[in-house]
Amino acid sequence: TTVVPSNYQTYFNKMMDAAQFLEAKKLARRALGKCTQQKVEEFLLAFCAVGTNVKPALLFEAAVLTPDVLLKLSDTLSEILKVPKEQETHLTCLVLEEPEKDDTMLSSDFWGPGTLFLANVPAVLQNLDAFINATDQGALFINVSGSLNEPTVLQHGLLDNTRKQLKAMHSTLLRASKSNERIVQGMAGGTQCTSLTLAVGALLGYPLIYSLPLDEQENCLAEKDLQLIEVIGQLGVIDAVSTKSPITSFSVPLSLLDDRIRERIHAWERDMEAKFQSQAVFNPEAQFLKASVNLAAVAL
Fold first, then answer.
1. Whether the predicted pLDDT of 61 surpasses 90
2. What is the spatial order of strands in the sheet that 116-120 belongs to?
3. Is the separation of the CB atoms in 93 and 182 below 8 Å?
4. What whole-number distance in Å separates Cα of residue 280 and Cα of residue 274?
C-alpha cells in the first residue's frame, strides 16, 4: 500500500477528478486508434511524465499521426490533465526523418522514417548535454552490431562519430527552440549520418545508449544476459482506481556491468528520484524494478 502525501492528494482534489481522467482516455483512444484500455492508460501516464519533466520524450508507435494532429492532441490533453503552463509550452513534435511514400505503419520493432516524438525540449537538451560533455564517454555508448559476438563499449573513431551525431541533434533542437518551432523535422539528421537506435536512446533519456551501424538491422543482444530496469509511475485520480505502469525502461548487458556503468545507472536513478519529488502529478516515490532477462531476439 502506497501512502500518498497530503500535498499530492490536494493536487488531485483541486486539479483532476475521475470525469476529467475519463475524458482524457476517450480523447487518447480516438487519436491512437485500435488499442486496449491498458495501452491508453499507459500512454496517458507517459504523456504526464513528459509534461512534468520526468521523462524527456514520448515515442508514438500506436498509430500513424501527423505532427499537427499530435500537437493538437498534446494541447488538448494538457488542458484536461492540467499540465503546468510552463511545461506545456515546451512540448514539441520531433520527426526523426521525413516519412517515405509507402510508409503506412510504425511499430515498436521499427524506428522507421517518420517516427514521431512528443518532447519536452529543455529536458531533451539537458540530456543531450549530459552525453556530449560527460568525462567518461566510454561508459555511455554500447556497440551492439550484429557482426559482434558480444556487445562492447564504443572506442575511439566510433565514439567520436557518435559524439558528433549527438551534437548535430542538439544544434538542430536548440535552433528550433530559439525560434519557437513546435514541429522539428529531420531530428536524426537523415539516414546517412545518424543511427536511429542512437537517436531513440538519446531522445528517450536512457542513461546508456545502444549504437547500431547505419547499414545493419540485426544486433548481437539475442540470447545474451541483460539487466532490465523499469521505472514505475503511479497516477492517482479521485473516485477511480489509481493506475500505474512503466514510465521508462532500458537494458544493459550483464557482461558490461562494471563499476563505471553501475555508477552511471545509480546517478540516473538518483536524478529520476529528484524529478519525481519535484512534481505533483505522480506519486513522488519513484519505483525501480530490476530483472535479469535472456531473449531469443531483442528489438531496438
1. no
2. 57-60, 116-120, 91-95, 183-184
3. yes
4. 12
Q: How far apart are alpha carbons 41 and 25 in whole angstroms?
A: 7
DSSP symbol at 110: B
Query: pLDDT tens digits for 125-150?
Result: 988 888 888 766 656 889 898 899 99
Structure letter (DSSP) for residue 3: P
Asked if pLDDT for residue 232 goes beyond 60, the answer is yes
pLDDT at 150: 93
Q: Which amino acid is at 100?
A: E
Question: Crossing angle of helices 121-133/156-178, nearest 10°?
Answer: 150
Q: DSSP code of 198?
A: H
Q: Which residue has the cell 556530449?
A: 132
CB 149 within 8 A of CB 78: no
Q: Count the Cβ atoms, other than its own, within 10 Å of residue 205.
A: 25
pLDDT value at residue 193: 43
User: Cα separation of 108 and 298, whole Å?
Assistant: 11
Q: Is residue 208 exposed (0-12), middle (13-18) or buried (19+ Cβ within 10 Å)?
A: buried
Distance CA 12, CA 119 (A): 24
